[in-house]
């Protein structure tokens, strides 16, 4: 047993899992949680691992769904969050729904009872001077700590809102309608000159689209969410409400683009999609942040010519969310490059969702424990859900447009030899999950041997 104690700040999904993993590996942990003395607008209790909104861990299908695969990988790694979610599971078809209060109470009780874990109540207001430390303070990180993080990383590298444009799987875009071109063919290389995918609209299509945007069902803002956000990132439907031509002079302007499928006709408006990951499997719809409800988004965005069969890796949204620009700030071991004694984990790293946040806690806890116990862990294979996520946030994502991300198969290196598109999907997804399970099992095996 080492004398070095891992300080974990924030006892939510990520901090709780990180504490458990580090303690189970044999390291000593102090877990700091500010609730109930200091609250947030979303949390209601003083329990660790409180679910702030929905009670779902989403799909539990580990053969056909990326988040279901992440459940599988976490269970294989002895995850506390998954074990307690399973123990308090509610009937919900293929989804893993959780009885939230007993779940949070049992996570809290298990952490309190662990001999290697001390839980300390109170807000931490500055970055730890010595390590190892893990910051897992989540989307509602308290103001004083957020300021300290911004002072270290630079204001531009810490966001307080996410304005997420929908993200589409590249393979589901109809390229017999859309085409690749940067506005005015800008760029030195052919790749840059073709960096965007363009979807053309006629005048009628544009008018019908604007009507649909204005009529669509919108989500309400949570209390305390609206401050500051209107400055830079208006929801697309708000732009449409301000004037029918606003979008045509904004994100949907048709200038500097020629449709090779119909070169003599100028489109009335153009929707542009920009590459969202290094693999080129995901594209975001430029400027289309939105508060439309998810069902409405799918219906409205499929009206865009070329996106009629689109599959969405994630839909758009605007939320209060504190997160750092991980692709520039963190190394592959989730350490802050400028202060490597500090790791970040959970939603503050730019993943999104209970499961993804807990998963990043799991990894950070194992990495920190390995460090204090004097061994190192090899990089997590990118073929696993865990590896695909951590690789995305620490380097695979486009840093300039970095926005929080759910786990999805678009983050995985493609599997070869399967049919593209919907028809090949079942076999392709099974191949992704089989490959991931083998790689994850192999990554875990030496750690089990070490612990034995
Ligand atoms: C309003 C809202 C609704 C959401 N709805 C959903 C949903 O339905 N489904 C979903 O999957 N995800 C949802 N999310 C995202 C959700 O917050 C994350 O998925 C998940 O809780 C993040 O885990 P985390 O551990 O990173 O952060 P959290 O679970 O929020 O944990 C962070 C912890 O750090 C503590 N803390 C903060 N600052 C300090 C400090 N300075 N010192 C000490 N402790 C501190 C907080 O009290 C908290 O307990 C929602 C987020 C918000 C804000």
UniProtKB/TrEMBL annotation:
Single annotated GO MF: tRNA (uracil(54)-C5)-methyltransferase activity, 5,10-methylenetetrahydrofolate-dependent
InterPro entries assigned: FAD/NAD-bd_sf, MnmG-rel, MnmG_N, TrmFO
Transmembrane domains' residue ranges: none
GO cellular component, one term: cytosol
Annotated FAD binding sites: 10-15
Start and end residues of each MnmG N-terminal domain: 6-374
EC numbers on record: 2.1.1.74
GO annotation, biological process: tRNA methylation; tRNA wobble uridine modification
NCBIfam families: gid_trmFO, PRK05335.1
Family, similarity comment: Belongs to the MnmG family. TrmFO subfamily.
HAMAP family: TrmFO
Protein purpose: Catalyzes the folate-dependent formation of 5-methyl-uridine at position 54 (M-5-U54) in all tRNAs.
Protein name: Methylenetetrahydrofolate--tRNA-(uracil-5-)-methyltransferase TrmFO
Species in which this protein is naturally found: Roseicyclus persicicus
Gene it is expressed from: trmFO
């Amino acid at each position: 047993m080492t004398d070095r104690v891992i300080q974990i700040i924030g006892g939510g999904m990520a901090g709780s899992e990180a504490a458990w993993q580090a303690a189970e590996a044999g390291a000593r942990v102090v877990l700091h949680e500010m609730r109930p003395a200091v609250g947030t607008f979303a949390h209601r209790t003083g329990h660790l691992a409180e679910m702030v909104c929905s009670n779902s861990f989403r799909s539990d299908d580990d053969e056909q769904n990326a988040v279901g695969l992440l459940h599988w990988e976490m269970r294989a790694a002895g995850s506390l969050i998954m074990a307690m979610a399973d123990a308090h599971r509610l009937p919900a078809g293929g989804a893993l729904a959780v009885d939230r209060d007993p779940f949070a109470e049992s996570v809290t009780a298990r952490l309190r009872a662990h001999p290697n874990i001390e839980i300390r109540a109170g807000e931490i207001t500055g970055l730890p001077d010595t390590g190892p430390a893990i910051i897992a303070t989540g989307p509602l990180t308290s103001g004083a700590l957020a300021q300290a993080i911004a002072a270290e990383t630079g204001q531009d590298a810490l966001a307080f809102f996410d304005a997420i444009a929908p993200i589409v799987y590249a393979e589901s875009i109809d390229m017999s309608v859309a085409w690749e071109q940067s506005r005015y063919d800008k760029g030195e290389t052919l790749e840059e000159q073709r960096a965007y995918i363009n979807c053309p609209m006629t005048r009628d299509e544009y008018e019908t689209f604007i009507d649909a945007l204005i009529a669509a069902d919108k989500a309400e803002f949570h209390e305390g969410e609206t401050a500051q956000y209107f400055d830079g990132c208006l929801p697309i439907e708000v732009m449409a409400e301000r004037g029918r031509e606003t979008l045509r002079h904004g994100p949907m302007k048709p200038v500097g683009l020629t449709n090779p499928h119909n070169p003599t006709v100028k489109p009335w408006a153009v929707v542009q999609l920009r590459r969202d990951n290094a693999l080129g499997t995901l594209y975001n719809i430029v400027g289309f942040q939105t508060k439309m409800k998810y069902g409405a988004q799918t219906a409205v965005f499929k009206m865009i010519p070329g996106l009629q069969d689109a599959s969405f890796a994630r839909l758009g949204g605007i939320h209060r969310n504190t997160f750092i620009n991980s692709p520039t700030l963190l190394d592959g071991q989730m350490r802050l490059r400028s202060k490597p004694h500090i790791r970040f984990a959970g939603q503050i790293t730019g993943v999104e969702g209970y499961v993804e946040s807990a998963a990043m806690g799991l990894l950070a806890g194992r990495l920190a424990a390995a460090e204090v116990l004097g061994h190192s862990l090899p990089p997590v294979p990118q073929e696993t859900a865990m590896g695909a996520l951590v690789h995305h946030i620490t380097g695979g994502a486009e840093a300039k447009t970095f926005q929080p991300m759910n786990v999805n198969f678009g983050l995985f290196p493609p599997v070869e030899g399967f049919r593209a598109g919907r028809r090949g999907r079942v076999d392709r997804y099974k191949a992704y999950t089989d490959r991931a399970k083998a790689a994850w099992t192999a990554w875990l095996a030496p750690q089990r041997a070490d612990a034995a």
